Amino acid sequence: MLTLGRRMAISQSARPRAPRFGFTLVEMLVVIAIIGVLVGLLLPAVQAAREAMRRASCQNNLHQVALAMHNYHAAFNTFPPGGLEVRPEVAGGKQFAWSAFILPQMEQAALAERIDFNRPFDDPLNADAAREVVSAYVCPSTPRSDPRVDDRGVTDYGGIFGERIFTTNNPPRGMMIHDRALGFRDILDGSSNTMMIAEDAAFPDGQWINGRNLFDQAFPPNAAPAFENDMRSFHPGGVMTLLSDGATRFVVEQIDMEILAALCTRNGREPSAGF
């Protein structure tokens, strides 16, 4: 006669076992490897998409600058001077930048009213206004931990003072020069063939209020040494630029240097075909 425990054991052993589901170690390693490959393939695409968005944002910044420049020209019949009383040419000069003069046209009239243009840009009374960060002057591709340089709001865009690729740029032949406001009548090469503003990202003088945010181009884009103000950006392959007619163009690093020099001057009558 079977005991109760014996009968239960026989009953349990007679039941069909439910199938077990799961991964073996080999299968799990294969899945992990496949996921790693997919991530490796997708990551560059994601990074490229993010950079494309940042580049589009940078281009939009220059569109805003273009509108401000042209509205300024409509009001005063000239563009603003590139820099006013820039030192050391003018000892103790006020040294204001073109990017400070167009603040009202950049929908920053309240900020412009806080600046005392009768005092130098670095006067203590202008310090509070100078600390403000104007988002349209900041390229999102530029890596930085602080949007200020020496406690002043940055700009990643500099005015074109001319070119030193083939000349000494004396006198300066760019659109943004010291103590002189130029207009369309001064652009003998044509406004669609003359640059006005270009990226010069993360350069030491890159403060929107500081009249030193100008440069005469001397190197291919993104090739200048760190101490030189020149066309540079953190976009792969080139820099974003603004022409005098208001159009924006992405200039590649492989641009012909003769064409680049021609684009940086307003009155050289050089050919710029192929740009």
Parts with pLDDT < 50 across at least 5 consecutive residues: none
Helical content (DSSP H or I, runs of 4+): 25-40%
Find the structural class using helix and strand composition.
alpha+beta
Number of strands: 9
Spell the H/E element sequence.
Answer: HHEEHHHEEEEEEEH
Percent strand equals 5-15%
Total helical segments: 6
Radius of gyration: 30 Å
Shape: globular
For the largest sheet, list the strands in their spatial order. 7-5-6-8-9
Q: What kind of sheet is the major sheet?
A: 5 strands, mixed
Termini separation? 103 Å
Mean pLDDT: 90
How many domains make up the 3D coordinates?
1
Layout of SSEs?
Blueprint: H1 4-14, H2 25-76, E1 83-84, E2 96-97, H3 98-101, H4 109-113, H5 127-130, E3 148-149, E4 152-153, E5 157-163, E6 195-199, E7 214-217, E8 238-243, E9 248-252, H6 257-263
Descriptive labels:
alpha+beta; globular
Would you mind describing this structure in some detail?
With 275 residues, the protein is an alpha+beta fold. The protein has one domain. 30% of the residues lie in helices and 13% in strands. It is built from six helices and nine strands. The chain has a five-stranded mixed sheet. It has a two-stranded antiparallel sheet with strand order 1-2. The model has no long low-confidence stretch (mean pLDDT 90).
